[in-house]
Amino acid sequence: MKVKPHVLPLLGLGIAALVTMPASVNAASSQAKGKTQSHSTKKSTQPAQPTYPSVQPTAQPTYAPRPTVDPVAAAPVERNYTLGEVISESVTGDVYADPSRWEALTFRQLFTKGWDKPWVSPPTGGGGAPRMGWLNAYDGVFYRLSLGIFSWAHGPGSYSDSYAGTLSSYTPLSERFQIRTDIGLASNRDQTNFADFIITPRILLSESKEQTQSLDIAFRTPTGNSSNGQGYASINPTYNFWTNYWKGLVIRGGAGFTIPYAGEIANAGARSTFNANLAAGWYFTDHDAAPFGDLVIYVANNLTQAIDNRGPNSTTTFSMGPGFRDHLGGNWYLLGAVDIGVTNPKPYDYQVSGAIMKVY
Predict the structure, then answer these.
(1) For 89-141, how does the pLDDT look when each residue is reduced to its tens digit (9 = 90+)?
(2) At what angle do helices 23-31 and 33-40 cross, to 10 degrees?
(3) Closest CA to 248 of 359, 125, 123
(4) Dihedral, CA atoms, 240, 245, 246, 250, nearest 10 degrees?
(5) Distances from the Cα of 359 to the Cαs of 95, 132, 206, 292, in angstroms?
(6) What pTM was computed for the model?
(7) CATH H superfamily, domain 83-359
């Protein structure tokens, strides 16, 4: 059959349209083959228009999706404690289980923060050293523990030797406040007798990872005998500090006053004094290395300067000596220290102290 010349342009346009059509359009076209073939044989004065694939817009949600984490639920909830709960959890709660409950306290927040929350054991210092107490050194840090201390002193010159036994306990009542008690079980210089009972309210001034500052106000009651240098009442305000900025090095100390105000002051030889302490030590082992865990060796220095007119105003007492503390296991500790009198008159040539302590 002879194709007419004017049909050739229409055939070319049809082939171009087939090339540019998407698969879906070609499929639809093949299903209606009969109709398209009969239509293509008809004459048309208008050229066929090519078709292009359509672009569908991305479907948009009709509402905003819910967040995977509720910001209100994720925010930390500050719990409000009653006074009874604060004291109960400080005294009997597990204060070591969740270190994240500990919070830093500043001096500026002294009257606004920490009084209404239970005490939590603070973390190790900035250098990694634990916060612990030492014999013959000021505390600085809050604790929850008890220890039995026995001391024996070699008397200077013709003075007889003496000994003393004390049960000391530290009881936290909140983040800012704790009570220390010292019960004199035995005291002997001329005769064996009870020693003076001392109760010490302690206020935490500030605490960060690297340092702790506290104010102790000790009240001494005259339960002992004046022949052993006991039997008088006094007040003893003392500033304490504890620091650990580098590795196992801990430096601690403080300063304060002792002011006798009642009891057998003259017979006991008690005087108003300025007191100062400075101690430095190094921790050699980790806590879990029992029976030599948390082993620290330190040197403590103590200064007492008389500031009253009950005797020579120049009376100055300075002593110094080494000490150690060691974790035996199960939160039982062994402590020891030697204090050597340096200045004259001496309260003793030297004094040896030992203690067994339980942290709970």
Answers:
(1) 999 999 999 888 999 999 999 999 999 999 999 999 999 999 999 999 999 99
(2) 90
(3) 125
(4) 10
(5) 11, 10, 23, 16
(6) 0.78
(7) monomeric porin ompg (2.40.160.40)
